[in-house]
Amino acid sequence: MKMAKSPDEYFSRNEEYRPLLEKLQSILQSTELEEKMKWGIPTYCWKNKNVAGIGAFKSYAGLWFFNGVFLKDSANVLINAQERKTKGMRQWHFESIDDIDEQLVSAYIKEAIQNQKDGKEIKPEKKPLIIPDDLKEALASSSQLAEAFESLSLSCKREYAEHIAEAKRPETKQKRLEKIKPMILEKVGLYDKYK
């Protein structure tokens, strides 16, 4: 399914939760946050920094805060959707429009905005670039390949390195290596065709 290009298009794909999503949207729109579409979902930003987002899931609609870990959560309504994976993001689930306490939701949003203004945010960890031996050997044997690899962004280099390192069997590593060499020479990322 293609990503929605507007909140209305997103809501129309999630009719069951449309009233709930529209209610959350109206609360968010009453703030100084700017509504944008990111990843096909309504996202609310302050000075281009993601603060909150809304979305529909199988059994609930949710409001999430990108740096919700810093919220006081006095009503104990926020959850970490993916323990040990999600560091800063917190979600608030709603099953019906009656679950929305407008004043409480507004208070959480205002606190999230203030936290963003205060610079409270989780910075992503910088993972070191570890080039597996098979890829090192290929780069050492071809100056053209090595030069093309060096011109790639760090994230592209990491994608290629992880792609080779994740293969368990030597045969698989070699197949992957042969597949990515032309891509590296073209100076494209491993996943560029999906972007």
Automatic annotation (TrEMBL):
Gene3D superfamilies: 3.90.1150.200. InterPro entries: YdhG-like (IPR014922). Pfam families: DUF1801 (PF08818), OmdA (PF13376). Residues 18-113 form the YdhG-like domain. This is Uncharacterized conserved protein YdeI, YjbR/CyaY-like superfamily, DUF1801 family.
